[in-house]
Amino acid sequence: MRDFENSFSLNINNHKVSYIDEGKYGAPVIIFIHGFPFNKSMWSSQIESLTNFCRVIAYDIRGFGDSDSGSEEFTIELFAKDLISIMDALKIDNAILCGLSMGGYIALNAIENYPGRFSALILSDTSCKADTHEAKEKRIKAIKNIRINGVEKYADESIKNLFAQESFTRNIIEIASAREMILKTSEKSLCNTLLALSLRKQTCINLCIIKVPVLIMVGMEDIITPPSEGQFMHENIKDSTLKIIEKAGHLSNMENREEFNYQLRRFVETVHQESLSPD
Ligand code: MLT
């Protein structure tokens, strides 16, 4: 995992947040929100590819990476509130938001509740739907298993579903890095977040009122939030583009970073150009 040069911390909502802040001040701001149960390190390649063009922020959600947990009960609403507090603390009025999976749930919640704060969205390997009854039961089972068998066993089981088959030979470093991120997460954070994920509300009903440009990316072999979820959001968000990332499963930004970064950069450049051109 990469050590970021510009890693900082700030206090918001009664906890310490660890974040990186790199790239050009005064340039468009892009904020990355990681998936579960990872941390800001998962964005290393995207950060590198955008720093000569954007101000790039990536932070650890409370309870992950180097951020504290705080004492409040984890919910997606709380995570979205934290995001806005981070933006306020860093004096960022408006940003492009990029979230993967749980990061996408947070991004969708944030655009629903704080629409004026975002100029564009990148939704990667995510869904607007709430957990089904079966999915909720699976989470409860996972919580029990983590408590009985520990985080290491959970990491080994999770890895099997996160990556495309091909990645197990092609992306050994990325797989090791994902495992390391899971192992860095405490049992308590894993369980509390699994509960928060199982209780999250759907955001599908408000997709039609999203006014900003949206890029949806999903790994062709994502079995956790498959391409059909991306297709559904694409059909319901007016100004959206869908890109299916080949040779990738759920962690498309790590598994096929060339394609992911190409699409990401192209989208960010277009959004930026459009914001500069007169109406
Ligand atoms: C993630 O990558 O954030 C998780 O797969 C989200 C989920 O379990 O719903």
Question: What does the model show?
Answer:
This protein has 279 residues and is α/β, with parallel strands linked by helices. The chain contains 11 helices and 8 strands. It has helices spanning 44-50, 76-89, 102-113, 133-149, 151-162, 167-170, 172-184, 187-198, 227-236, 252-255, 257-276, and strands spanning 7-12, 15-23, 29-33, 55-59, 95-100, 118-124, 214-219, 240-245. Strands 1-2-4-3-5-6-7-8 form an 8-stranded mixed sheet, sandwiched between helices. Strand 1 (7-12) and strand 2 (15-23) form a beta hairpin. Helix 4 packs across helix 5. The mean pLDDT is 96. It binds D-malate (MLT). D-malate (MLT) binds at residues 35-36, 101-102, 197, 224, 250.
Short description:
With 279 residues, this protein is α/β, with parallel strands linked by helices. The protein has helices spanning 44-50, 76-89, 102-113, 133-149, 151-162, 167-170, 172-184, 187-198, 227-236, 252-255, 257-276, and strands at residues 7-12, 15-23, 29-33, 55-59, 95-100, 118-124, 214-219, 240-245.
Task: Indicate the topology.
Blueprint (H helix, E strand, L loop, with lengths): L6 E6 L2 E9 L5 E5 L10 H7 L4 E5 L16 H14 L5 E6 L1 H12 L4 E7 L8 H17 L1 H12 L4 H4 L1 H13 L2 H12 L15 E6 L7 H10 L3 E6 L6 H4 L1 H20 L3
Helix pairs in contact: 1-11, 2-3, 4-5, 4-8, 5-7
Name the descriptors.
single chain, 279 residues, alpha/beta, eight-stranded mixed β-sheet, 11 helices, 8 strands, globular, binds D-malate
